[in-house]
Amino acid sequence: MYRIPIFLLIDRSASIKGPNIFAQSNSVDVLIEDLSAESDLDPWLSVLTFSLYTTVHQTLSPLENLDFPPLSAGVGSSDLGSGLILANQLVNDSLTFDVEEDKPWMKPKLFIFTDGLLGDHFEMGHWDESKNAYSKVIFCAQTIPQFSLPKHVIPLSFSEIRGGSFTPYIR
User: Fold this and answer.
1) What is the mean pLDDT of the segment spanning 111-125?
2) CA 66, 155, 40, 37 torsion-angle sign
3) How far, in Å, CA of 34 to CA of 113, rounded?
4) What's the mean pLDDT in 109-120?
5) Do 110 and 48 form a contact (C-beta atoms < 8 A)?
6) Mind giving me the DSSP string for 43-58?
7) Across the chain, where does the E strand assignment appear?
8) Of 43, 46, 66, whose CA–CA distance to 56 is shortest?
């Protein structure tokens, strides 16, 4: 059995309200259900939210210990850039990939849940560190941004998630 570290970066800005918060919440639920169904993986999750600032709600812990914050719209604009910086720091500072017993760590994955608005201070360079920190970066959004995302970032709209699952993106 492999331990899989998964970092959730969830938008709580003012724009994530109404249908956006509903679609985001459903998408997060689908991911948690899919992770629970993976019998040969031991998922560990860390939960971060971002708006004007980024907050760590849960450091890396087993899925069964998930303490999820209520998903609701916050205030202010999105600052996905600071969210990516903090998530990357968590990977670099707190995650070791030593083999413990018979459960080696897999390379981490980052799931971003947002309405697709990146905020006023976002720069494409914010993606750079995530290229080496994660095996996959899944950008889950109500609308996919008009600009092209880096090749290591997989765009996935909330409507695609509603009709399917995250299973192909977990491995």
Assistant:
1) 77
2) positive
3) 16
4) 82
5) no
6) EEEEEEEESSSEEEEE
7) 2-11, 41-50, 54-62, 109-114, 136-141, 153-157
8) 46
